[in-house]
Amino acid sequence: MTAIALTIAGSDSGGGAGIQADLKTFSALGVYGASALTAITAQNTHGVRSIEDLSPRIVADQIDAVLDDLEVGAIKVGMVSRSETIRAIAERLRAHGRSVVLDPVMVATSGDRLLREEAEDALRSELLPLALLATPNLHEAALLSRQPAAETEEDMADQGRAVLADGAGAVLVKGGHANTGESVDLLVVDNATRRFTAPRIATTNDHGTGCTLAAAITAELALGRPLSEAIARSKTYLTEALRAAKALHVGSGRGPVHHFHHWWSPKL
To answer: Do 161 and 186 touch, CB atoms closer than 8 A?
Structure first.
């Protein structure tokens, strides 16, 4: 049986994040990737220039077309900027009886806002209850929990529990933006927490890290891995992709991670 994953997200014209990063990650991990596009962004390694949303109807039709035909093992939801589109996605996911890995893309690494403020409540009420796992970074966890940015692991756990209270099945609070010697992600589920750690890689090629990690988890779930194992394997994959990114020379800003580091390296 071919393992298949579906990503519902926006397009990154620079190729480092969004749909492009998701499909690269699926392929790198041996999973066939399908997609439902929510928006088109004009962006590069320096930031987002403009965003054009697709209609909720065509987003919903893409989801139906894929799920009516393909045996999709896991679904990721990434960038969705409008409440109307969020509601359309949630309605189709409920109709198909599907849960998702939710990467609540709210603000890009460049600082550009990708989720409209008016859509935050829709994200909480419509998509979080459908999330098998939500994967907010520190800034997103603070926004979702309506708390200041976490400064300690205790803060991260508290914010993860606040997101759980909105209906998510589990929450992985990502500490990649913290100023610590290692990268610590905290999985919060029920009354338990689990730490996932990796060395912090000093690189400016970190565009798309959040998309890549969530996509990797989705791919591992499509392959039948249990959640904790899927997260651990994905954390390792992302760390290696960050370490190998120094071999890539893409753009003059914050470049992408090297999704296919197991397969090829650029000639230096």
So the answer is: no
Question: In sequence order, which residues have a C-beta less than 8 Å from that of residue 83 and are 6 or more positions away?
Answer: 116, 118, 119, 121, 122
Q: How far apart, in whole angstroms, are the C-alpha atoms of residue 60 and residue 225? A: 28
- When the pLDDT of each residue in the chain is averaged and rounded to a whole number, the result is 93
Q: Considering only CA atoms, give the Rg of the chain.
A: 17
Other beta carbons within 10 angstroms of residue 40's beta carbon come to: 17
Q: Angle, to 10 degrees, between the axis of helix 138-145 and the axis of helix 153-165?
A: 50
* CA 101/CA 163 separation, integer angstroms: 14
Q: What is the pLDDT of residues 101-147, one digit of tens each?
A: 999 988 766 566 678 888 899 999 999 999 999 999 999 999 999 99
Superfamily (CATH) of domain 4-247: Ribokinase (3.40.1190.20)
Rounded to whole angstroms, how far apart are CA atoms 114 and 51?
8
Domain ranges of the chain: 4-247
Name the residue with tokens 């409920």.
Answer: 94
Beta strand pairing call for 47-53 and 32-44:
antiparallel
